[in-house]
């Protein structure tokens, strides 16, 4: 799984990059058909924004999150994507039953 991390009007520090990669590795445990992930971090006034597009075998999922703290935004983003992946997995499983 390839993770592309970029910052929009901000620098992505090694600590943020490591935290992000660790969190996205957890997604792969739930769903092993992730091919790549694009993550974009940004700042709008005082809001920290985290957005991600997850490319999977049969499509893509997108989520975004905002918070005063980038780490909180990343955690919320992961939770949203995790729920989407579980829903996608269940939907595919029900088609095969």
Overall description:
- This is Ribosome hibernation promoting factor.
- Associates exclusively with 100S ribosomes, which are dimers of 70S ribosomes.
- Belongs to the HPF/YfiA ribosome-associated protein family. Short HPF subfamily.
- Keywords: Translation regulation.
- Helix 1 runs parallel beside helix 2.
- This protein has a four-stranded mixed beta sheet, with helices on one face.
- A hairpin with a 2-residue loop joins strand 2 (34-44) and strand 3 (47-56).
- Helices cover 45% and strands 38% of the residues.
- The chain has helices spanning 14-30, 70-96, and strands spanning 2-8, 34-44, 47-56, 59-67.
- The chain starts with a strand and ends with a helix.
- The chain has one domain (2-96): Ribosome hibernation promotion factor-like (Double Stranded RNA Binding Domain).
- It is built from two helices and four strands.
- It is elongated.
- The chain has 97 residues and is an alpha+beta fold.
Summarize the structure.
This protein is 45% helix and 38% strand. By secondary structure, it is an alpha+beta fold. It has a single domain (2-96), classed as Double Stranded RNA Binding Domain (2-Layer Sandwich).
Count helical runs.
Answer: 2
Total individual domains: 1
CATH topology: Double Stranded RNA Binding Domain
Instruction: Indicate the low-confidence ranges by residue numbers.
Output: none
Beta strand %: 35-45%
Subunit structure: Associates exclusively with 100S ribosomes, which are dimers of 70S ribosomes.
Organism: Legionella sainthelensi
Protein name: Ribosome hibernation promoting factor
Family: Belongs to the HPF/YfiA ribosome-associated protein family. Short HPF subfamily.
């Amino acid at each position: 799984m390839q993770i592309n991390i970029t910052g929009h009007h901000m620098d992505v520090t090694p600590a943020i990059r490591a935290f992000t990669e660790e969190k996205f590795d957890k997604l792969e445990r739930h769903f092993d058909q992730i091919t790549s992930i694009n993550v974009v971090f940004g700042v709008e006034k005082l809001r920290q924004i985290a957005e991600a597009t997850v490319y999977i075998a049969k499509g893509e999922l997108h989520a975004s999150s905002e918070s005063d703290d980038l780490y909180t935004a990343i955690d919320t983003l992961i939770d949203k994507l995790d729920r989407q992946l579980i829903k996608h997995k269940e939907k595919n499983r029900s088609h095969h039953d």
